[in-house]
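If your schedule permits, I should be very grateful for your opinion on a structural question. Thank you for your consideration; the sequence and its tokens are set out here:

===
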Amino acid sequence: MNKRRLLPIVAVAALVLVAILTGGFGLVGDDRDGELKLYGNVDIREVDLGFRLGGRIDRIAVEEGDKIKAGQELAVLDAAPIDSRVAQAEAALAQAEARLAELKNGSRAEDKAQAHARVAGAEAAYRQARQDVERRRSLVEPGAISHNVWQATLAARDRAKAQLDEAQQAAAEIETGARAENIAAAEAQVRAARATRQGMVVDRNDTALIAPHDGMIITRAQEPGAIVQPGATVLTLSISRPLRVRAYVAEGDLSRVASGMKVKVTADGNDKTYNGVVGFISPRAEFTPKTVETEDLRTDLVYRIRVIVSDPDDGLRQGQPVTVILPPRKGG
């Protein structure tokens, strides 16, 4: 084959190669409209569990690796000290309620009868004291009685009058009932006693450590018999549901992602393809994390997205690298 016939063939081959490398010189669509792969990890979600109160651990019902359900009892403090304070609070409340009922209901008929009897006795004593004063008044001038006896007679009359006033006032209070301000004060004491009792009941309930989420126990930091301070970690819970994937999308592909979009999730060494939904797209750009960076993305700005996996199983574990596959662009 001579050189003249070879040159056109070489030229055509060169053009084809350049077209492939340049995507058809920009005139032919590339695969950016096809599936888009994003890279990330399964979120690590853990919570340290402890008691709100301090005390001695009575028992721990779970071991590391146990799968648990929300609402399950995990550990219990010795409740004896709290039980005694609850009993004291209930007794104080009963006493305050009884005092309030007494003020509102007023005095019994027996109390009223006794008050009137005391008034009658005081009136009789006062009449007798006045009579003694009148009888002895004429005896003072001639000296038939001493000055001291006269002064004692006057004092006895005044004392009888004061006792009568006191008895009459007490009888009037029994008849009219307690004053409004006394009832208000008693009602305030009842509310305070109820609040104290409720606080003790809350403390009693908090002697049990309850699982807030479904998950797995990954750390058992204490043992029964240990004295723990409020908030000290007793167990560490790995939250398994919902299972979330954290992935990153390049700025140029941000328009390909939308909240509510259905995606696929895969993991190395796992043949299963999981279904997911985009639940969150960060409004803030960041540099690609080292855990997912590639040579092409090391200096790129990316946006974090969260994917909720709809059908998770034990094949996906927290921290595991995964690939999120977005569907092709519509019309692409």
